[in-house]
Amino acid sequence: MFRYIAGILTAFLFFGSVFGFLYILDQYDYVDLKPGVLMRLSMIPGWEEVYEAYQLGLEDMGLLQERKEALAAKEEALASEAEKLEAERQSLIEQLVALQEKEEYLALQERKIAEQQAGSRLTLQTGATSQDRHERAARLLEAMSPEVAGENLLKMPFEMGVAVLSLIEPRKASRILEKLPPEQSAKYMAAISGR
């Protein structure tokens, strides 16, 4: 009796090891057992739809792959659109800074004319408005990337640039000064430390 049970266990172990080996080969794509096994299983009464379900699953996998590719294309389009919008935003900020610089220049010219004509009373009023303009320019420079802010700083009159840099947070101002040419950066740092 013991030999009979040992023989049955040996047969089960043999079949189990063969099936395990085939399963490992199937998992590492050395052998594709699924279609063949499913075709054999579909011959069993009541299991006729197993192979058809497998084929439908393969088709659905193709549809999922197409959807993934479509989503990746949409994501890429959205990323390029975001880059365009960021570039547009930067150009608008640059235009705004340029307009403020022109406004500053015109205000400076008006102030010189007003000083010549009216005296000290008008000088105090323009000083207050120039302080507001300096604060606006400082906020705009803080919003820009350090490279763009450095370019716009060089376009400003030197005194205005020093005033604007002194209003900016020191860490952001140092990042902007790092992007300037060394001579200009040293000139601005000397002027700011002398204030």
Automatic annotation (TrEMBL):
Annotated keywords: Coiled coil
Coiled-coil ranges per UniProt: 64-102
Highest taxon in the source lineage: Bacteria
Keyword Coiled coil in annotation: yes
UniProt-listed SUPFAM superfamilies: MgtE N-terminal domain-like (SSF158791)
UniProt protein name: MgtE intracellular N domain-containing protein
Species of origin: Capillibacterium thermochitinicola
